Amino acid sequence: MTGPRRLFLPDSGAARHGDGRVSAPSAERNAGPILDLLRRHAPETGTALEIASGTGQHIAGFAAALPGIDWTPTEADPARFASIEAWRAASRCPNLHPPRPLDATALPWPEELRGVDLIVLVNLLHLISEAEAENILTGVATALAPGGSFLLYGPFRRDGLLTSDGDAGFDARLKAQDPAIGYKDDGWVRDRAGAAGLHLRKVAEMPANNLAFLFRVVG
């Protein structure tokens, strides 16, 4: 991906705070359920990356709730850095580091990002192509330390099917903007992740018909 796609999404009109923070409604809705999973499955201590941190509101909440982990946001779109940095400043979390530029669809990932204990990716795979998604899974598997965990969250097809009218409509609107993108199948994710070296631990049903995949690198 040579640059961030300019898509019209339901969160494109996100609210802006006076201090520079941007809030996406979907991030507000899913932050609690994702954090519940992290509390149960994340390591107590270690290092973590968030891929495609977007507004920065998710990782600020993760860092506050899981202070034993050092969190680093990453983002491909430089225009989002100001909001991520504003959320970091507002959080006052010493374990939340400045954002790093990263196009996670481009391989190889920088050497200095390797050896982390946890990687989190929320709501991206449906916005990129299959080839780009495969590159991300490869990058994740390479960056994780032995025994490291990967949490992947978002909307997916189930056994090839879109299981709600809302999902069918959203997928169609995405493909109208770019035929290469759209919902990935849950079986495709399992297969491609396994081929990259990620071992599936759990698939969790999440609110709004989303799924969360928990993977581990076995060292």
How would you describe this structure to a colleague?
The protein is α/β, with parallel strands linked by helices and 219 residues long. It has one domain: Rossmann fold, CATH 3.40.50.150. The chain is 34% helix and 26% strand. It has six helices and eleven strands. The strands form three sheets. Strands 5-4-3-6-7-11-10 form a seven-stranded mixed sheet, sandwiched between helices. It has a two-stranded antiparallel ribbon with strand order 1-2. Strands 8-9 form a two-stranded parallel ribbon. α5 links the parallel β8 and β9. The longest helix has 17 residues.
Shape-level CATH architecture: 3-Layer(aba) Sandwich
Strand neighbour order, sheet with most strands: 5-4-3-6-7-11-10
Largest sheet: 7 strands, mixed
Strand content: 25-35%
Q: What fold name goes in the CATH topology slot?
A: Rossmann fold
Mean of residue pLDDT values: 94
Query: Which consecutive residue ranges, at least 5 long each, have pLDDT under 50?
Result: none
Shape: globular
Q: Write down how many β-strands occur, each being a DSSP E stretch of 2 or more residues.
A: 11
N- to C-terminal separation?
30 Å
Q: Taking Cα atoms only, what radius of gyration do you get, to the nearest Å?
A: 16 Å
DSSP summary: helix tally: 6
How many structural domains are formed by the residues?
1
How would you classify the helix and strand content by structural class?
alpha/beta
What order do the helices and strands follow?
EEHEHEHEEHEEHEHEE
Helical content (DSSP H or I, runs of 4+):
25-40%
CATH top-level class: Alpha Beta
CATH superfamily: Vaccinia Virus protein VP39
